[in-house]
Write a structure and sequence with these properties.
The complex is a heterodimer.
Chain A lengths: L4 E3 L2 E4 L5 E6 L6 E8 L3 E9 L2 E5 L6 E5 L5 E5 L8 E8 L7 E2 L3 E5 L1
Parallel strand pairs in A: 2-11
Antiparallel strand pairs in A: 1-3, 3-8, 4-5, 4-9, 5-6, 7-8, 9-10, 9-11
Chain B lengths: L3 E4 L2 E5 L4 E7 L6 E6 L5 E7 L5 E4 L2 E6 L4 E6 L8 E8 L1 H5 L6 E3 L3 E6 L1
Parallel strand pairs in B: 2-11
Antiparallel strand pairs in B: 1-3, 3-8, 4-5, 4-9, 6-7, 7-8, 9-10, 9-11
The chains are: A mainly beta, B mainly beta.
């Protein structure tokens, strides 16, 4: 079956702009999580959605937000971009209940 | 705050040798995952460990979980070059924070493994 897909794969923005990233989970998966990966901070949890509800949220400022649609597709938004937001943003989907999370290829965001 | 520590962070080993990567964590949890990441790629799931004493094996890799010691190990047997990658452990506190079935993974910094022919 098809894996997790993320769009766009690469993005270049300037400081102060906002950006929306999209994630389509594996068919049947209702849990979608977002992670930020940077060389300095490593992999950090942003938030998890299940059935359109945010269940968990990591320690990120309010500029980072997300949502999930009824078809389980998810978007995350970053407003007022800062240079430090440059990172690989990974989306992962799961059936839940301890099942592994399957990661998408990521969106590489560069903020200039 | 949950801390997840992996060691070593860098590991260079010869083909055919055995080695173990350690993952220590600071808060009680019985849900731990191991992932592999190749350069420029996303994360690939290796193992899911969901109870104390869990042991999983796949090919030359074997993972175990000791929840009482808050320790998981990833053992590499007779390493081959194809195993060169970065390996991450991740502890899941989602159930503790938000109930059954939810996720909130905290990752270790990763172990960069280089297997030299």
């Amino acid at each position: 079956k098809a894996g997790v897909t993320q769009t766009p794969r690469y993005l270049i923005k300037t400081r102060g702009q906002q950006v929306t990233l999209s994630c389509s989970p594996i068919s049947g998966h209702r849990s979608v999580s977002w992670y930020q990966q940077t060389p300095g901070q490593g992999l950090q949890f942003l938030f998890e959605y299940f059935s359109e509800t945010q269940r968990n949220k990591g320690n990120f400022p309010g500029r980072f937000s997300g949502r999930q649609f009824s078809n389980s597709r998810s978007e995350m938004n970053v407003s007022t971009l800062e240079l430090g937001d440059s990172a690989l943003y990974l989306c992962a989907s799961s059936l839940g209940g301890g099942d592994t999370q399957y990661f998408g290829p990521g969106t590489r965001l560069t903020v200039l | 705050e949950l801390k997840v520590e992996q060691n070593p962070l860098f590991l260079s080993m010869q083909e055919g040798k055995n080695y173990t990567i350690y993952c220590n964590y600071s808060t009680t949890s019985d849900r731990l995952y191991w992932y592999r990441q190749d350069p420029g790629k996303s994360l690939e799931s290796l193992f899911v460990l969901l109870s104390n004493g869990a042991v999983k094996q796949e090919g030359r890799l074997m993972a175990s979980l000791d929840t009482k010691a808050r320790l998981s190990t990833l053992h590499i047997t007779a390493a081959v070059h194809d195993l060169s990658a970065t390996y991450f452990c991740a502890v899941d506190m989602g159930e503790l924070y938000s109930g059954a079935g939810s996720y909130q993974l905290t990752f270790g910094k990763g172990t960069k493994l280089s297997v030299i022919p």
